[in-house]
């Protein structure tokens, strides 16, 4: 029933007749369809333009996928790809970290278990507790069912559309028409930041940011009791993306929520007490929903090397920020796109006036600038803003670009409204020219090489033609001809990505396959699976760009001693430092053993070294390691150690004397010291070697200690002949159990309490959310 002010009855209202109600309802439906039609048209056009090589040509963002026995992601009959290709101006984290981790998570989920432990990197490392393995991301579920580059790229496309949808809903709070909201949604989902690092998990977390701001608006609305909406959106950021990026986005949204409450009218806002209650409840529920991710990470912090937490001075320096803004190869580069759109946004603000509803956007922009560019040297201010240095400045790039996109969308919408009200064609032409120039710059930005726009002949010619068309459109008198010419200019800008890039976009070729065939099929054989040993890949320039990169071995189930990740077990880091010497990048999580001798690598169970025959060639030759330690072996000669420091000191002494092949340093050992007799490798048979379970059949002529060269970490349990056994830290970073004389069956299994506790807490949290949503639905 629709009521309307009038004078027809004593209540001061009148009812629509049945035909009137029908006409009003049909008009509302048509209006709603038009609004969503404009959004779908613009966001769909942008998605088609950017993902055209994927939609039309079948190209995928990660251009390879390797599994035992087959290669996918390349044309049928093609050569196996080289698995490393430098992308100018950026690192290779999408190939080194995110794609292998997603593929590993998919393999575990298809086997019916969570990806708790990754045994294929760094002698084993926590998977779900690392912050980089995302088994609950809804955008990757199809990839987890069928892991190949096509489903992976499709997930990124769906995430981008979800990002734009959230931005579109949130921009509705500013009273914008449908097209500026859709324009802002396009910038929200396809701005230089998201396009530049689409294959990074940082952007995956940012897909939820528009939804998060929209949820805070609902939470702070006195008429809306859905205080739990921000909790769901925070859970989405944590489930889908980089943990530090998710944390910074959550903090930024909290700053936005506070600014919204301060900027709102007193008569229409929550009381301070009610605001604090709702915000606190949302934060607490968010912690419950994300416990399945947060608890494993927190549980491993005490035994991990976390470079973000240990180096709070890694804030973005002012000089770095300035260089990032002006350098077209940086990821913070303020391209002509930014300046062109900023002019549009500021012009719109000047035409419409900065209302109170717009203040939170400025606060969000200032907050991102303070963290990203660090213009203020005051540590007492920067410390709280970065949570004591946990949040490095570069993680504010998403906040910066999203707040800028909102500014531009609001300004463009207000500018268009001013042009319509005052019949000032010049203002509208300025808007159209700015949007066309923005489209041109956006097209140039899709070029992965990121060279200056004016230094490219094709872009220079296109820009000249476009500006000439726009100038002629401004000078023309007949309105229809002027509108036609301006439309033509906009069309040229829209198709410019296709004109500037041939064939396809370079982004899709950035990690492409090399032309020489690869010799990587040898990775799965030659002893690696037979004796469960490990490999190490290097070469003359392996420190900068190894052809066989860390983490990639997990794609074909080969065990690599190197690692690229966020959380690294501290004991393993100390082994790497002892074997490699001082680290070139002490604040990095790249563990490559760059200075280790082949004999020292054998102490980690490495039996082969893959040496590249040429940079980016994809061809390797295998160098055997002399006298490597087997991954599992028995010793009777034990050197006890009191703690981690004592263990490292004694292990280093034995390594320098070459005595580690018959002895082991066992931390906390209180048994005796037998003579140096070593059991043969044949006395150990492998029964099960899975990511979260290792089972061995051992025959020992006397009581001994079984050393397993897998990383020691909390959560691992052991049984010997069915009875619980203590796991000792051995040789600083590995595991050992005591075995009796005769035949024994030893089982190592990974059961981290933090994961199961977090999973239980999160499940109860989602049940509570379902109950809250059901109760609200019942109340109408």
Give the structure's gist in a few sentences.
With 780 residues, the protein is α+β, with helices and mostly antiparallel strands.
* Count of DSSP H/I helices: 26
Q: Trace the largest sheet across and list its strands.
A: 17-18-24-20-21
Query: What percentage of amino acids are in beta strands?
Result: 5-15%
Overall number of strands: 24
Radius of gyration: 30 Å
Shape: elongated
Any descriptors?
five-stranded antiparallel sheet; 24 strands; 26 helices; four-stranded antiparallel sheet; 13% strand; alpha+beta; 780 residues
Tell me what you see in this structure.
By secondary structure, this protein is α+β, with helices and mostly antiparallel strands. Among the domains are: 3-45; 136-300 and 316-422, no CATH class; 427-511, no CATH class; 632-752, Maltose phosphorylase, domain 3 (Sandwich). Helices cover 48% and strands 13% of the residues. The chain has 26 helices and 24 strands. The strands form nine sheets. A five-stranded antiparallel beta sheet has the order 17-18-24-20-21, with no helix packed on it. A hairpin with a 2-residue loop joins strand 3 and strand 4. Helix 6 packs antiparallel against helix 19 and helix 17 packs antiparallel against helix 19. The longest helix is centred in the N-terminal third of the chain and has 33 residues, at 18-50. The model is unreliable at 1-16, 24-29, 64-90, 309-337, 443-456, 496-529, 539-547 and 674-681 (pLDDT under 50).
